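#random but structural
TW: two for the price of one
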Amino acid sequence: MNNSEKLHNVFAQSLNIGLDKVTDELTYNTIPEWDSVAHMALVAEIENAFEIMMDTDDIVDMSSVGKAKEILAKYNVTF
């Protein structure tokens, strides 16, 4: 499994949505499943899956799947 697949799986499992709904364009608060509480659970799962600790600014800025990839790149995760 590559990092993109891993990230998509984390989103699907954390938000309890189908993998088919996880695209780079999926954005925070555009689906009922991705609210502020789910966002924090999602962050915890991403940190666990990629063995990183995100800065607070990055957690706040993570507004889409595509943006999550940009942020993870800062932590040397390649896509």
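TW: number two ↓
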Amino acid sequence: MSNTYKDAGVDKEEGYKTVDKIKNAVAETHNKNVLNSLGSFGAFYEIGGYRNPVLVSGTDGVGTKLKIALDMKKYDSIGVDCFAMCANDIICHGAKPLFFLDYLACGKLDADIAAEIVLGMVKACKDNHCALIGGETAEMPGMYQPGDYDVAGFCVGIVEKEDIIDGASIREGCRIIALPSSGFHSNGFSLVRHIFTDFTEEFEGKPLYETLLEPTRLYYQPVHKILEEVKLCGIAHITGGGIIENIPRVIPENLCARIETDKIKIPSIMLELEKRGNIDRKEMYGTFNMGVGMVIIVDHKHAEKVLNLVDDAYIIGEVVTGPEKIELV
């Protein structure tokens, strides 16, 4: 009797079912720039209307937040997280997301689970006017256990060369403005899972896992709303390494981001984690976003306008002269 791929643990039919479940929704993210008819081994995206375009790319995954989603069998937010972690990075340079590709790996493919994850990406792409133009689903028995999934993505955006935001124009006196996060986003979950061991316990009136799995906030719309009216000096996405590691990435030499910590609105779930785990506050600021998902640095003359453009934005500090690139006071 001859062997088949299915005998080795790979079910091609389940892969076909996944495609059938997502293809119409994915097509809804496409625009006139997506040239589907040109080939099937690569995705084509036509660029036009720019004088001196620069492509900005980013890739990321969801990390061990995925473990909570798999344990709780709640998959709808994971695709949003994957897209957001990639797109929020390129937005820091003033780029507009153009297209996104995903990579989904598992031990044994379940078309319903895979489709639910990808449909989350579709939702995020549509919210950000970005096309989901391709992806890869890899069923790898022996590498992953049945029920295990890993998710990663790749996003490409575009910006005029003259409009690139890289922190070079940051000066003393610039204001540092916070855009709130929606929770932990997709960072620090190895520590979260170490402290919180029962995801079904009640926290503030609902199961804890619902708070932990809150999707990463998408910042394209508020940031580009600001960029239409204000020239920004720097933007930092507060991801792995928290506030302490990410804000210095955009601060020029001999300048310092002076952060007034008493102004930061720390989410209650993070305070609960800090308390239960007896975690030092500095460790918290160096691991989590602490409620600040994105930081905008702007000339002090334009700070009030930024606050008026985005309802939940608020000032958390200013740029001063100093040898260290960040100071928490």
